[in-house]
Write a structure and sequence with these properties.
Elements lengths: L22 H26 L12 H13 L2 H4 L2 H31 L9 H32 L5 E2 L2 E2 L3 H28 L8 H7 L7 H25 L7 H10 L31 H6 L8 H4 L2 H4 L6 H28 L22 H6 L5 H5 L6 H15 L5 H13 L30 E4 L1 H6 L1 H17 L3 E2 L10 H5 L3 H17 L4 E4 L2 H9 L9 E4 H10 L12 E4 L13 H8 L5 E2 L29 H11 L4 E4 L2 H13 L7 E4 H8 L17
Parallel strand pairs: 3-4, 3-5, 5-6, 7-8, 7-9, 9-10
Antiparallel strand pairs: 1-2
The protein binds iron/sulfur cluster (2 copies).
């Protein structure tokens, strides 16, 4: 019905209709509910502040408020996954709308009416009534969608290894929410049934439901209304009281976690600074984390977004980022009250008494978090990129690895060998470091020792220097730079391992040693701009080296090549054959937001046919080599690189273009494992470009041969 068709007058409703005498009781029950809520928050606060080292997360307030609005209020991260995003959005926005409605109602009742300026009347009341119905239906629809997902559709990510991880709490929360709305509609319908004002057609849900009570006499309706009114009231108050003791606590912790999200570069691992004095390194117990790292787990909603694209989980390993967070939370729930009580007791004792901490009942690393889980992580950053609560999984995993490596010296033998090789020859294979620049001998590439006045340092990295495939990429890229007339040089035998694998594999001491050695050399030559072909080197030089005085402009070779093409410095004239697909490297894409440049380069190549894999861009599937996994055996489940190769095969690719030497190795191995060497190849973008420039010698090497069908 159109608003204009009403003779709008004093439409409005009595707030305590049929419940006039209950006002006092309602306030008493509300006070009880609020007290239970406040006590719960107080207890939770004690637990949040009981454990963890200091960490500043209240700086840069403007940035933090933006994050709070973006992800806490407008739910941008949640909406990235459309169906669950809508589900959550309906509940949240419906709920917020109803809260505002309740506030309006209360203001009208306690201020507007008594002081002679009622405002919930006339047109405003009609619109208000209409909106309240819409918000109520929003919540109801969201609750039904959630019930369907949890108990009927049961997507894998709402469980672990095929078993749903529902708890009674999930059902209680959904039933409470649904119950509050349904009883709200019923009491509205009963009121409309008895009072029957024509304008209540604007309360369309209650108005329609009122027809169901057509045969009910007014007295019975009034009694029913009272019963439903109290049911509704107890559910709503129970909901408030339940918040701090249930998953509903995420209404507080998740927005807080968005506000306190890391503002450091993506993937940042805080360096250990106290090697000289500390007795233990990394995180062996909850107390070794910062308070924010501990708080994180209380913001987890068990939505499973992180698990949904975790290569370790999807390939059948024990690791699930959701499970890691939940296991840490369970352990925290067990341990935090004991520690909080110990601190309180010490506080009551004489000043200066150190609290006697309760002994840990479990080893956090090894029992709470299984070692298979810990070492399965590729640091691919999928979990952190997609977590709807801004939880930071990767630094926790690296900190626990640091504990195993540096404090307990207990880690995989193959990683021990890798670290020894890095220590002795500054590369993971242990090849003599004097051979590092041999790939460049025939190209006439100068070292900085020969000419320090070049514009760019080409930091080649270990793969580009020693691995046979990697060396071909280095050569292709160096030839591109030479052809384009770019001024560059290399460090030659003065270059060392970048330190990324050592750092992400928990050997922070070794990684710092490697970084500092490189920084000394680079700073000695006054290096300002660096190009890397390896995203691991690129990421660590750009983000970790500044921690130790290495401040450079760092570029990835795809950025440089894309610029050279755009500037007309290189021309691509020779068409390529076959179907290409591009595999996004995690350390290039999710870590550094470089998605466009590689695609632009490929698009500029004549004859390029490009098919995107389903898992692409920020949802790309890791090759399996990050986080030092490159140097470790993969014992459990399916091999991640083979799964990624299957995804390329699924789009009929004959060439997998990559921009990372680790990905190149992993996907080349995947192609071999799938026995597709005759039909498929993996190529670095530099190799594809060099070929398309048409300057390549006519005899391509067998293993990089672009196949034709
Ligand atoms: S970083 Fe990647 S592999 Fe590690 S837990 Fe997160 S999603 Fe899984
Ligand atoms: S860690 Fe984040 S993405 Fe994973 S289940 Fe918890 S809230 Fe969801």
């Amino acid at each position: 019905m159109e608003l204009s068709k009403f003779s709008v007058g004093n439409e409005g409703r009595e707030v305590f209709w049929n419940a006039e005498n209950f006002e006092g009781l309602l306030f008493a029950f509300t006070a009880v509910a609020m007290a239970i809520f406040a006590y719960g928050i107080y207890r939770r606060w004690q637990m949040w502040t009981a454990i963890g080292k200091p960490e500043v997360r209240n700086d840069q307030i403007k940035e933090r408020i933006k994050l709070l609005l973006k992800n806490g209020l407008f739910q941008i991260k949640t909406f990235r996954d459309i169906y669950p995003g809508i589900m959550h959005g309906l509940i949240l926005f419906g709920f917020i709308g109803l809260l505002f409605g309740a506030a309006f109602d209360a203001t009208e009742f306690h201020v507007g009416e008594p002081y002679g300026f009622p405002f919930l009347i006339g047109k405003f009341y009609l619109i208000f009534s209409f909106l309240m119905e819409v918000f109520g239906l929003f919540v109801l629809a969201g609750v039904f969608m959630a019930l369907d997902r949890r108990y009927i559709t049961k997507p894998e990510r709402l469980g672990y290894k095929g078993e749903p991880d529902n708890t009674p709490d999930d059902a209680i929360v959904l039933l409470l929410l649904g119950g509050i709305i349904l009883t709200g509609f019923v009491i509205e319908a009963l009121r409309i049934h008895v009072t029957n004002p024509p304008w209540e057609v604007w309360s369309f849900a209650g108005y329609t439901l009122a027809k169901a009570f057509a045969g009910v006499d007014n007295n019975t309706a009034r009694i029913l209304h009272k019963v439903m009114w109290w049911t509704h009231t107890f559910m709503a108050l129970g909901f408030i009281a339940y918040i701090p003791y249930s998953r509903l606590v995420h209404m507080i912790t998740t927005p807080a976690n968005h506000f306190m999200a890391s503002l450091k570069p993506v993937g940042n691992i805080e360096p250990i600074r106290d090697f000289e004095t500390a007795e233990s390194f990394g995180a062996g117990q909850l107390e070794d984390f910062t308070w924010k790292q501990v708080f994180d787990s209380d913001a987890c909603t068990r939505c499973g977004r992180c698990q949904d694209g975790c290569p370790a989980y999807l390939s059948g390993k024990a690791l699930s980022p959701k499970k890691v967070v939940q296991d840490l939370k369970t352990y925290w729930l067990e341990r935090a009250p004991m520690i909080a009580a110990a601190k309180k007791a010490a506080g009551k004792a004489a000043e200066g008494t150190a609290p006697e901490m309760p002994a840990a009942t479990k080893a956090m690393v090894g029992e709470v978090i299984d070692l298979h889980e810990l070492w399965a992580c590729t640091n691919c950053m999928y979990c952190m990129e997609h977590c709807s609560s801004s939880i930071e999984h990767v630094p926790k995993i690296v900190n626990m690895r640091q504990y195993k490596v540096l404090t307990e010296a207990d880690f995989a033998p193959e990683l021990q060998l890798t670290y020894r090789n890095m220590e002795n020859n500054s590369n993971p294979w242990g090849v003599g470091s004097h051979l590092r620049a041999d790939w460049a001998k025939e190209l006439g590439v100068k070292t900085l020792a020969e000419d320090p006045n070049v514009e760019y340092l080409f930091y080649v990295g270990c793969s580009g220097s020693f691995d046979e495939r990697g060396k071909k990429v280095s050569m292709a890229f160096a030839k591109i730079l030479q052809t384009a007339g770019v001024s560059f040089g290399i460090l030659g035998t003065e270059e060392g391992c970048c330190g990324d694998s050592a750092m992400r594999g928990g050997n922070e001491y070794l990684s710092q040693t490697l970084m500092q050695t490189n920084i000394e050399v680079m700073n000695g030559y006054g290096v300002k701009k660096i190009i890397c072909t390896c995203p691991h080197g690129y990421n660590t030089l750009k983000k970790d080296y500044p921690h130790f005085g290495g401040n450079y402009e760092v570029y990835h070779h795809t950025e440089i090549i894309a610029n050279l093409i755009a500037a007309g410095k290189i021309s691509l004239k020779k068409p390529v054959d076959g179907m290409f697909t591009y595999h996004d490297s995690c350390f290039l894409g999710r870590y550094n937001n470089i998605y466009d440049q590689p695609r632009k380069i490929l698009a500029a190549i004549p004859g390029m046919k490009l098919a995107e894999m389903d898992r692409k861009l920020d949802k790309s599937f890791c090759c399996g080599a990050g986080g030092a996994r490159m140097w470790m055996e993969e014992h459990d489940g399916e091999r991640i690189n083979n799964m990624r190769t299957d995804q390329a095969i699924a789009v009929n690719a004959t060439n997998i273009a990559v921009a990372c030497p680790f990905c190149l190795t992993m996907l080349t191995d995947g192609i071999k494992a799938r026995e597709k060497e005759e039909k498929m190849a993996s190529l670095d973008i530099a190799e594809v470009v060099w070929r398309a420039m048409g300057l390549e010698e006519e005899k391509p090497s067998a293993d990089v041969c672009a196949p034709t069908e």
